[in-house]
Amino acid sequence: MKKILLPLLALLLTVTNVTAQKALVGIKGKIDRGVAVKENPVMNIWQKKAPAKTSRIAMEADERIMGYYTTDDLPSAAEGVGFLNNPGAYQVGVEFYGDVVAPYAGGSITKVRFGLCRPIGKSKITVLMAVGNTLQEVASVDVPSTVAGWNDVTLPSPVPVTDDSDFIIAFDFTQQAGVFPLAMDGGFNSNTVDGGSMVYGDLGQGKGWYTLGGTYGNFCIQAVVKKDIFAKSKDVIVSDLIARRFIANGKECDVEFNVKGSGPLASAYTIDIAVDGNVVKTLDTPVALSSKVQDVSISFELPAGMAKGSHKLTVQVSTIEGEAPLADGMSAGVLAQEFKLVEGGYPHTKHLVEQFTSTYCTYCPLGTTILNKLSAKRDDIALVAVHGNMNGTDIYRTETTDSLIMFEMFNAGGYPSASINRYQIPGEKDIAFGIGINEAYMDPFVEYLDYIIEWTASLPAFASVDISSSFDPETRTANINVSGEALPDFKNWVGEDARLTVFVVEDGLVARQLNNGRWITNYTHNNVLRRGGSSVYGDAINWTGDNKYENSYSFKLDEGWKVENIRIVATIGRPMMLNILSQTSYEMSPIDDAWVNNCNEVKLGGNTASVSGPAVGDKVAVETARYNINGQRISGAQEGLNIIKMSDGTTKKVIVR
């Protein structure tokens, strides 16, 4: 989980190109700002050094700091950030929402402070809040002069905080040539948030709000919240719960969350972990409290005799220095997540890896090299390269690729990026993640991706996916049949609205590609997504029996496509839905609920067939021997009738064409 992954990721140097324009609408607690939101981290960052220390803002006993980090750490002057490519006037800010805001509900923002590496002259603090579908200014203060370090500002009147508050707190500055005045916390604060750092101005795609993602951390902006209860309590705050949504019967439950202290730090505390309201484990001071966020990760056995199906996991602070937390204090919050206890499953046939790339992306060949190394390491990957426009028109971009990019790269770091089985990686905010890795770090990153595949594979496949295909050269018509068997609980575990998706990909396409600043004219593009066989968001599954399904497709291939290089990729899993409302807004299914449960692929004209049945408990039926129609044992798939003996004593007959 995150505790395992982060140390490895800290070694990796990621480079991405981000120019895709996006609109954010009600996703993950974020707001529709009424204006297009763009990603474009066109910044220069100097070498990282140890953070500088300054004195804490003056606070009363009933005040606490609200932010993604609550220490006095600041970058040194040599670590400043600036928009050298785009001098001009800006607002830079941080979006406060979700777990960061919730513990402060019922209080009011009284002060704001922002950190600088160099003075910027006069400025202005603005507090914006989501009201309906727009941002409204709720407070502003002119700042006559600024200093290197923290700049403390008292608001003219308090701003109330509620459970669902969503703020952007920003300050004005003018970017000058060769100046790096802005302070960001990426060098010392591990609790970075994609989309937390915002810029209003023109960074090359017109005036509007831009999000810088989590690459550099958050701008050093904090709010001070006043609440009567703060004066009476020491606070232990738990946040960011991560747990598996499906747990196989007999397997341990992995749980991870963050903890930090606020106000006077408690010397001892306990945290209860409960399942369906019954405490299954109590942690006694798992980490010594700090005002910085710390990670807690544990595994435990679920209670014996639990019924399969839905259950509720909760994490809550139970005592602070021997006393129960105050009912209306910051420590009273409960983290909760639903999970399903499942039994049985099919082995995963393939794992879907979607690569987001562009011929105009100078770092995208690095991402291709990473995925080629991953493919060489394991043979159960179905690669799909999804091309999109960047600073020019990509010849392999289609409406299908546009839709996938819009959904999966919603807040990702830009091109090149990838997703694995459309799962949210533990600790990440999005499906897609950057793969533009410096060559020196590629091998450990491939190990990281291999681990992620295994992590997603811990969820059993609840249905098999078989593909049969044919091609008529006279009419250039492809006929595709996707079928399989599902466990009896498939509709309960994957959902009545589960979808089947079919993609057509082509290898061996030669075209130009920008690579490290120069154009390669004869670059070979593989795994290129040519079209969808199904709807891009998947089709309803055609159930032919209680546990069997079969979907059929027929479509023509373009004249220029080489049939011998075409592959068919089919997936079964949760639906991915996107409804574009206007140029600046759209609705979409939850980003954490579009996962692929199983996948398979075949060359056009070929067929696949399941050779292993569902698992029972921890025992998976696998192929032990294979025979031809004459009863002679063969070493692998052979054209014609194959008779397959399984480890559970069953026999299968498969036609191989």
TrEMBL record:
The keyword tRNA-binding does not apply. Residues 86-214 form the DUF4082 domain. SUPFAM superfamilies: Thioredoxin-like. Gene3D superfamilies: Immunoglobulins. Residues 1-20 form the signal peptide. Keywords: Signal. This is Omp28-related outer membrane protein. It comes from Xylanibacter muris.
